[in-house]
Design brief:
By secondary structure, the protein is mainly alpha-helical. The protein is built from seven helices and two strands, in the order ααααααβαβ. The protein has a two-stranded antiparallel ribbon. It is elongated. Residues 104-130 form the DUF7575 domain. This is Zinc ribbon domain-containing protein. Residues 132-156 are annotated as: Disordered. It comes from Natrialba swarupiae.
Length: 156
């Protein structure tokens, strides 16, 4: 499931930088990458008057090919590539520990994000969770009570 989500995030980021981050609910990065890409389009692509004057898709492609320079192509390609790579790594949970630093309660074994204790699934990655059966330990048999909440385990 994580690989499928990472591939979907990368594919969406290739189509529109920021869309892959929206899939993984990283809203700040969504705004940053979409804003960068749209700003680069405004800067490097032909003016609106030139675009509205074209009559066919073929003429539009010729206009864009003639008007955009090598630097513009590089910047647009770099933004698309960086957004796709970043969305892929974020969907896979990299960098390690980035999502686990702020988690106070139980965390999901798949995505590492904080869990809602009332739900039987992770509301971030939809992994089904089941309570772990308490094991009879020697310390519990010695008179200690297990008053702590039961840990949650992913069902596979």
């Amino acid at each position: 499931m994580t690989w499928l989500r990472a591939l979907a995030a990368a594919g969406l980021s290739v189509l529109m930088p920021g869309a892959g981050h929206a899939l993984i609910r990283d809203w700040l990065r969504t705004l940053v990458f979409a804003g960068l890409y749209l700003s680069a389009i405004v800067i490097f692509l032909p003016s609106i008057e030139q675009i509205t004057a074209i009559e066919s898709v073929g003429e539009g492609m010729e206009l864009v090919g003639d008007e955009i320079d090598t630097m513009g192509q590089f910047v647009l390609s770099f933004i698309v590539l960086f957004a796709a790579i970043d969305a892929t790594f974020r969907a896979m949970g990299f960098p390690p520990g980035s999502s686990n630093e702020s988690v106070d309660g139980p965390s999901c074994p798949e995505c590492g994000k904080e869990l809602d204790e009332d739900l039987t699934f992770c509301h971030w990655c939809t992994t089904r969770l089941e309570p772990v059966e308490p094991e009879e330990e020697d310390s519990n048999a010695a008179g200690e009570t297990g008053s702590e909440a039961e840990p949650v385990e992913a069902k596979r």
